[in-house]
UniProtKB/TrEMBL annotation:
GO terms for cellular component: U2-type catalytic step 1 spliceosome. It holds the Pfam family Saf4_Yju2. This is Coiled-coil domain-containing protein 94. InterPro entries: Saf4/Yju2. One of its GO terms (biological process) is mRNA splicing, via spliceosome.
Length: 103
């Protein structure tokens, strides 16, 4: 059990961090996150109601070339639990305000 609690890692004396490959970040990267729906909505395909607070695994991306008063916008892609149609919505990234919604 104690072997799982190790906080330090051994680096051999001949280890060279400069030889490690660089981690490249793509510009249009999508993160997979777990969110709760920010508002009640209805699927256009099957008519299923999705109520506020339902949890989803979503893809998140930053909306490029679009901001609201200098605040970034994020676009989320979720799937309808009944027909698996894709639903997307945009929200502000400012946590101090109630998230304004855009479709």
């Amino acid at each position: 059990m104690s072997e799982r609690k190790i906080l330090n890692k051994y680096y051999p004396p001949d280890f060279d961090a400069a030889r490690l490959p660089k981690h490249r970040i793509t510009k249009n990267r999508q993160l997979v996150i777990r969110i709760m729906s920010p508002m009640s909505m209805r699927c256009n395909e099957c008519g299923e109601y999705i109520y506020k607070g339902k949890k989803f695994n979503a893809r998140q991306e930053t909306v490029r070339d679009d901001n609201y008063l200098g605040v970034r916008l994020y676009r989320f892609y979720i799937k309808c639990p009944r027909c698996v149609a894709e639903i997307s919505f945009k929200v502000l990234s400012n946590p101090n305000t109630d998230r304004s919604r855009k479709f």
